[in-house]
Amino acid sequence: MSFDPVSRLDGKVAVITGGLGAIGYATATRLAALGANCVLLHRKGDDATARAAALPSAQARRHGAIRADIVDTPSLQAAAAEVKATHGRCDILVNSAGHTQPVPAGDLDALTDELIDDIVRANFRGVFATIRAFAPMLKASGDGLVVNISSIAGFTGVGSNLAYVAAKAGLDVVGDALAKALAPAVRVVSVSPGAVESGFVPGRGAEFASKMATTTPLGRIGKPDDVAATVEALATTIRFVTGTRIVVDGGRHL
């Protein structure tokens, strides 16, 4: 296996969970522009097929969209089977699906057992289940890449809620373990944004973004494309990297 940089992704197949979300779609756009065939996994996107078709493409490329829920393992197994049947391979898996809900760290009663289970299921268990479903194809590729979209919450302890913090911390550590277990055929890397311009966290609008920007050393919060550019680099130029995190937060964690 060569870890030399590459400039194109022609012939590669990239599966992106949360593919209709801000980060997921920005990532698909970048990978598709370099020649990858992109498959967008989504839960309920009525426009998913049209958005997949709108990705940068040449005649030989076949983008697609598959309905699957990362907390439903049978649906992930079915999605993996469809990718294999349609594309024959999976070289890149980007895990950008998940959800959260703001709960102040000091409000212990508001972080109910049910909410903890829901957040951990979506942001940890579902990611692991996705990797498990696609691992055979990633290993068969011989040059597989898993990118888990994590968060600085995983190492700062500050996030939308403490269950989210725990889920991202767990994801980072398990990602490191998988980097050893799946090497050398598959690399596993966490990409950890801070606040990002998206609707990911309910109730956080322009006022929140402005406040976060003033306390971020580089003077703004992240954009989805900042994260997507990092995933692109991992797939092309930053290839001798596995079992670690790359922080993309403008210095927010400092």
Task: Please describe the topology of this protein.
Elements: E1 13-17, H1 22-33, E2 37-42, H2 48-53, E3 64-67, H3 73-87, E4 92-95, H4 113-141, E5 144-149, H5 153-156, H6 162-182, E6 186-193, H7 206-214, H8 224-236, E7 244-248
Parallel strand pairs: 1-2, 1-4, 2-3, 4-5, 5-6, 6-7
Helix pairs in contact: 1-8, 3-4, 4-6
Describe it for me?
This protein is α/β, with parallel strands linked by helices and 254 residues long. It contains 8 helices and 7 strands. The chain has helices at 22-33, 48-53, 73-87, 113-141, 153-156, 162-182, 206-214, 224-236, and strands at 13-17, 37-42, 64-67, 92-95, 144-149, 186-193, 244-248. It has a 7-stranded parallel beta sheet with strand order 3-2-1-4-5-6-7, with helices on both faces. Helix 1 (22-33) crosses helix 8 and helix 3 (73-87) runs parallel beside helix 4. The protein is globular.
Radius of gyration: 17 Å
Low-confidence stretches: none
The shape is globular
Strand order of the largest sheet: 3-2-1-4-5-6-7
How large is the count of helical segments? 8
Tell me roughly what share of residues is in helical segments.
Answer: 40-55%
Mean pLDDT reading? 95
Sheet with most strands = 7 strands, parallel
Portion of residues in beta strands equals 5-15%
Structural class: alpha/beta
- The arrangement of helices and strands along the chain is EHEHEHEHEHHEHHE
Distance between the termini: 36 Å
E-strand count: 7
